[in-house]
Amino acid sequence: MSPEIIDLMLQGIQETLIMVCVSTVIAAIIGIPLGITLVTSSKGHILQNAVVHQILSAIVNIIRSIPFIILMVAIIPFTRIVAGTSIGTTAACVPLTIVAVPFLSRLVETSIRDVDFGLVEAAESMGASPFQIIRKVLLPEALPTIINNITVLIVNLIGASAMAGAIGGGGLGDIAIRYGYQRFEGDVMLVTIIILIIGVNLIQAVGDFASRKKNKK
């Protein structure tokens, strides 16, 4: 490959990292509390509220039911308002974040539901408040699985960020499409795929290690 393509690859890696990191951080900030709320507001739980639970659950289901490529196109006006543009790395962060939040929230919801409810009842019997139960029981017990959930999210976002390249989102996906596909440069396509495979495997390895370190069992 020419030095120009190598520089382009490095730029693509940087853009992909920005998209994935920004989307993951915002998704974690919103999605983890949302997942906890979905559990604790459900019937029989510590913050039971049928109205809140049904509204949040409906919103999550609606967003999750829209294919990512369609969502990217559908929210272009909103993306322009938020990012000031509808193309490029910054713009791609908007749909990536929107799709990541409900995805992570459902994963976190499942993790929190797997926590033995007997621990919650024991904490309640000792006078713990709902927020103390969340902070000292639910989150610590579910943390290893939540770390795995974030790992799954990051891997999915890498794939979605590559898809964002189809409409000018930048990153490795954009390079693969513009050079590997449209210009029939097979070596560029191959290198892009190898970089993505290596990235996914590294992230999975780090996530698995972090989860094992936090697992008390």
UniProtKB/TrEMBL annotation:
One Pfam assignment: BPD_transp_1
Membrane-spanning intervals of the chain: 17-39, 51-75, 81-104, 146-168, 188-207
GO BP field: D-methionine transmembrane transport
Localization terms from the record: Cell membrane
CDD domains for this protein: TM_PBP2 (cd06261)
Lipid bilayer topology: Multi-pass membrane protein
ABC transmembrane type-1 domain sequence ranges: 13-206
Keyword tags: Cell membrane, Membrane, Transmembrane, Transmembrane helix, Transport
Highest taxon, organism lineage: Bacteria
GO cellular component terms given for this protein: plasma membrane
Keyword Transmembrane helix: yes
Family membership noted in the UniProt record: Belongs to the binding-protein-dependent transport system permease family. CysTW subfamily.
Family annotation (PANTHER family): ABC TRANSPORTER PERMEASE, D-METHIONINE TRANSPORT SYSTEM PERMEASE PROTEIN METI-RELATED
Protein name per its UniProtKB record: ABC transporter, permease protein
Source organism of the structure: Megasphaera lornae
